[in-house]
Amino acid sequence: MSTSSIAGLSMSSSEGRPPDLSIIIPSWNTLTLTRECLGSLFSNDHGCELEVIVIDNGSADGSPEMVAREFSRAKLIRNPVNEYYSKACNQGAELATADVLCFLNSDTLVPPGSLRKMLNFLEGNQDYGAVAPRLNNPDGSVQPICRRFPTVFEVIADQFDLSRWQVMQRYRASANMRDFDHLSSRDVEQPPGACFMLRSRDFNTLGGFDESLPLFYSDVDICLRLWRSGQRIRFLADAEITHVGSASVVKHALWRAEFMRNQVRYFRKHHGWFAAQFAKSIIIASGVRTAIGTALGRKPVPEKKRLLREVFNSLRIAVSE
Questions:
Q1: 115: closest CA among 99, 95, 101, 94?
Q2: Is the model's pLDDT at 81 over the cut of 80?
Q3: pLDDT at 253
Q4: Are 263 and 155 in contact (CB under 8 A)?
Q5: CA torsion, points 243, 216, 247, 97, in degrees to nearest 10?
Q6: What pLDDT was estimated at residue 250?
Q7: Which runs of consecutive H residues, i.e. helices, occur in the chain?
Q8: pLDDT > 70: what percent of the chain?
Q9: In whole angstroms, how far apart are CA 149 and each of 20, 123, 188?
Q10: Which of 28, 39, 40, 96 is the most buried (most CB within 10 A)?
Q11: CA 319, CA 321: separation in Å to the nearest integer?
Q12: In this structure, are residues 234 and 190 in contact, taking their beta carbons and an 8 Å threshold?
């Protein structure tokens, strides 16, 4: 049984009228960024009635207290421990009352107009399952981070530096959509998950985010399931938000190991047992290579022991399912 606590009210200002859009924000130890994100939501006129839901994953930096104190109109779910991204998003979706959901990272700033443009697109294009905006860096430059769906070749690319190989260069260029400047709108397979909008009925039909992919690949997974259900996904270039990037993830001590474990689970789910075993073998080979290099290196013995423990602990987590 969950021991999470819930507080707060809807942001919607029209009494008796349901919100147009439920904004769902998972947060973990990003107090300043969360404050700025919520400020951009509450201080701007977005042209639609918003319901803001913050799911705090056991932050120790005062984030939930800040949200309760400074943004009392937001609904706040306080998890006593870090439940990670997928479960937190599902918790927020369960509490949401709008017909459209928008999953938003806490390290974003939302200017006026962008949410309305995304909402208008979904309302006017029933054959689309989701829409995502253009992400900009804080300096205003575009983040070119739409992707094509990964293949098991992705694991090799992640584990070994083969950037000099032409086949790897071609793969990376295709997988990372380097043929797309992100300055125009188009259909994409996998937009960035930092801001992702879809109808609540479609989200519920899909069963929400897959909680067996708690931190990584859950956004890839839900995009693939949308496409397989016959619904397209739109990248909307004229809807822009600012994205800092990886603000919470990099604070996770074993984020790299969790990334590899989620990667293996994704390939098992969508490409089968053999693909998962291939991914594991590549990860193990890379780990053994790193361990040998560490053992034969010139670092002091205590430092070698510490690094080797980290390598084998990461491998243990990565290949466990």
A1: 101
A2: yes
A3: 59
A4: yes
A5: 60
A6: 56
A7: 31-42, 63-70, 84-95, 114-124, 153-159, 166-175, 200-206, 218-228, 255-271, 273-295, 301-319
A8: 92
A9: 31, 26, 10
A10: 28
A11: 6
A12: no
Using CA atoms, how far residue 137 sits from 44, 162, 240, 273, 298, in Å, is 20, 28, 10, 39, 39
The pTM (predicted TM-score) of the whole model is 0.91
Burial degree of 292 (CB within 10 A; 0-12, 13-18, 19+): exposed
Could you tell me the two tokens for 315?
């491998």
Helix (H, G, I), strand (E, B) or coil at 5: strand
Q: Can you give 213-244 as a three-state secondary structure string? A: CCCCCHHHHHHHHHHHCCCEEEEEEEEEEEEC
Q: How far apart are CA 319 and CA 263, in angstroms?
A: 10
Average pLDDT over residues 227-252: 86
Residue 195, SS3 per DSSP: strand
Contact 306, 291 (CB under 8 A): no
CB 44 within 8 A of CB 113: no
> DSSP letter string over 238-270?
EEEEEE--STTGGGSTTHHHHHHHHHHHHHHHH
Q: What is the pLDDT of residue 252?
A: 58
Written as one letter, the residue type at 221 is D
Task: Categorize the per-residue pLDDT at 16 as very low, low, confident or very high, splitting at 50, 70 and 90.
Answer: low
d(CA 236, CA 113): 12
Mark 32-52 as b/e (b = at least 16 C-beta within 10 Å). ebbbbbbebbeebebebbbbb
pLDDT of 302 higher than 60: yes
Strands 21-27 and 50-57: parallel
55, 89 contact by CB (below 8 A): yes
Closest CA to 233 of 155, 147, 309, 310: 147
Confidence label for 9 from pLDDT (cuts 50, 70 and 90) = very low
